[in-house]
Amino acid sequence: MKILVLGSGAREHAIILALRSEEAGHQVFAAPGNAGIAQDATVVDLDPNDPAAVTVFANDRAIDLVVIGPEAPLVAGVADALRERGIPVFGPGRAAAQLEGSKAFAKRIMDAAGVPTGRAVRAATRAQLDAALDDLGSPYVVKADGLAAGKGVIVTADRDAAVAHAETYLPSGPVLVEEFLDGPEVSLFFLSDGDHVLPLSPAQDYKRLLDGDAGPNTGGMGAYSPLPWLAERFGGEDEFVDLVTREVAEPVVRELDAEGTPFIGLLYAGLILTESGVKVIEFNARFGDPETQVVLPRLIDPLSELLLAAASGRLESCPRPAFADAVAVTVVVASEGYPQSPVTGRTLTGTDAAATVDGVHLAHAATAASEAGLVATGGRVLNVVGLGSTFAEARDRVYRAVAEIGLEGGQHRTDIAERVVER
Ligand code: AMP
Ligand code: GLY
After folding, report:
1. Which ligand is nearest to the CA of 291?
2. Whose CA is nearest to atom 3 of ligand 2?
3. What is the pTM of this model?
4. 3-state DSSP call for residue 288?
5. Ligand 2 cavity residues, CB under 6 Å
């Protein structure tokens, strides 16, 4: 197949590596890509957020499948434009993508579909904010209603901090104050063809910057998959996955279809396992980053066939995707100053040595090639991914590889998947 992947992060690199690992030998194009992606795909000069440009490219090159990585092209209507021209695309249209972009939209769909989630109150003024904070109590959860790349949320017992956070967003629109949900978080991905869904394997993301879940929220500093504690708690991974399929993914996809906005693409359920059951904290309309980097290396079935089946309304005829028993751990190497104000342009060294560690590969997040070698071009720079037969082994490999990486001021967490090993 000829496949075009839109996006430039480690998630897109992971998608491309999965496509390239297939026996079928696809021709993979990427826009805009990065220095790592350029080693595994043909990088093309194309604005991924321009629906007309992407459609012309896909048409001219007879692309068989377009895979949209990040949210921005979805919001820009790239999937709508491609679908209008009959080009198979994995990614929802603008309307269905609001499931991620608008927390208010997501809450409305969840209410209509009867999906369990926390209580939430919209506040457009300081007075409404104070009332909502009083009503829902501490710890306070305040969210911006829009594209904030995982940084629009504050969870804090400090009321002044909650108010200050809300006030940075209030001038441009209402914020959402939410009931605090207590429990471990799980990310579960579903492929959807608008009608049927197929689940992938669960993963856990580390959202905070620092060890011990301290520091600010980030886009994600590491992840692991599968989640052995989940299998214990629910009597097996499949039991948990079946429950979320039945109670969350299927009702949401049905509701979106009934409203005339079918969801074709990746439905990402961000879940909290509370004492009173599994609840949704958020949906995303795309693969999660960095969870994809630990889920796809474990996928046994050819990814291209699953994505094409979803894009073509044929998921019902596909068996549930199978996953290897091998476990995967990824650690994100980020720039100094991330997430507030990342320092970019610094040299990145040691990637070749890191990739020679047994069971390790790299997914580039924000790198560019220069005469002096690789340079970091963003906040999250690189994902080091380690596979192993146990978490102890995967962690040992991943951190041996991380030790090879040189980036002045670089940051990474040292405790990814540590709690799984200790159990
Ligand atoms: P979101 O942008 O909605 O994914 O939120 C980012 C992170 O904030 C989540 O992954 C959680 O760790 C935390 N969070 C969001 N909403 C809640 C909530 N209602 N209760 C507890 N933690 C939350
Ligand atoms: N891992 C969080 C996200 O992709 O939004």
Report:
1. 2
2. 288
3. 0.95
4. coil
5. 150, 205, 220, 284, 288-289, 291
